[in-house]
Design goal:
This protein has 274 residues and is of the alpha/beta class. The protein has helices at residues 21-29, 50-66, 92-109, 127-136, 145-150, 155-161, 176-183, 189-194, 208-217, 238-255, 266-271, and strands at residues 8-10, 34-42, 71-76, 113-116, 141-144, 166-171, 224-226. It has 11 helices and 7 strands. The strands form 2 sheets. The protein has a 4-stranded parallel sheet, covered by helices on one side. Strands 5-6-7 form a 3-stranded parallel sheet. Helix 6 packs parallel to helix 9 (208-217).
Length: 274
């Protein structure tokens, strides 16, 4: 990651990086990397789970902050061991908004910014669900370009509409043909990833250049997290080389974009691409 030019990373799957703050910092320091944040699945809509949810949030916030991170990335799930998309009833949306507000306070107490990550197959998936929770909650948004598309959203339009709510960008491209099979239920998300659902930036069907141009011209000092989701089969070391190549292709794509007007923060954002 460092050799590719990254300065920061998110935690990734729990346990990929050390789960004790001092060990986490030491591991990142050895590679001259810093922590940006961490992805935290939480059950937000069920009052019977509230105590456990808030305790889990506090534990995760302690790890992220202890590792030097800035962002607490929340994903609303139906169950911790089953992330299926279960539509909420009308009375559950205000409960989720209230729980998000409590997690906001927990994150802030650790010096972190909570941001909500819409995700395919989870509670907040579709454009309508994103709009519903943003209307009743003050929690900022993670603009994940691929998951917004998989949820049926027009990513560029949503970026325009919610520009002031975006706290963090997860940027990846999408193979539209494979995406259609995933959203139709013909492939699982894992199967889609294995078949190349998320190609290098500029090789899929998303208007990545236009999205970045919009964000940069806004003058917002945003972080971009380049995600290259993968499902690596055991005993396939060649997959690592392919992932490294794809990630470098994505970096080259971003660096070769036309610069926007002076003062928009382009150079700072691109230099610090996590």
């Amino acid at each position: 990651m460092r050799e590719a030019g990254f300065t920061h990373t998110e935690l990734g799957s729990l346990g990929y990086l050390p789960t004790e703050p001092a060990e986490l910092r030491a591991a990142l320091d050895r590679h001259s990397l810093s922590l940006l944040g961490g992805f935290v699945p939480l059950v937000l809509h069920d009052p019977s789970k509230a105590e456990d949810t808030l305790a889990s949030a506090d534990d995760a916030a302690g790890l992220i902050a202890g590792g030097g991170g800035r962002f607490f990335v929340t994903c609303a799930v139906s169950h911790l061991d089953d992330w299926r998309q279960t539509p909420l009833s009308d009375h559950q949306w205000p409960i989720m908004a209230d729980t998000l507000a409590e997690v906001d306070l927990i994150a802030a107490s650790h010096g972190l910014t909570q941001s909500l990550h819409p995700h395919f197959g989870c509670v907040v998936e579709t454009a309508a669900e994103i709009e519903q929770i943003l209307d009743i909650s003050d929690t900022p948004l993670v603009l994940d370009t691929a998951h917004l598309l998989l949820g049926g959203g027009d990513v560029l339009d949503m970026a325009k509409r919610y520009l002031d709510r975006i706290a963090l960008v997860h940027i990846k491209d999408v193979d539209l043909g494979i995406a259609a099979q995933v959203t139709a239920g013909d492939l699982s998300l894992m199967q889609g990833v294995q078949r190349g659902l998320f190609p290098p930036l500029g090789r899929g069907g998303l208007p990545i250049a236009e999205i970045v141009d919009l964000l940069e011209k806004s003058g917002r000092d945003l972080w971009y997290v380049l995600e290259q989701d993968a499902a690596i089969a055991e005993g396939d070391p060649s997959a690592i080389a392919r992932l490294r190549f794809d990630a470098c292709q994505s970096i080259d794509f971003l660096r070769n974009l036309e610069p926007v007007s002076a003062g928009a923060g382009t150079s700072q954002t691109k230099q610090h691409l996590p």
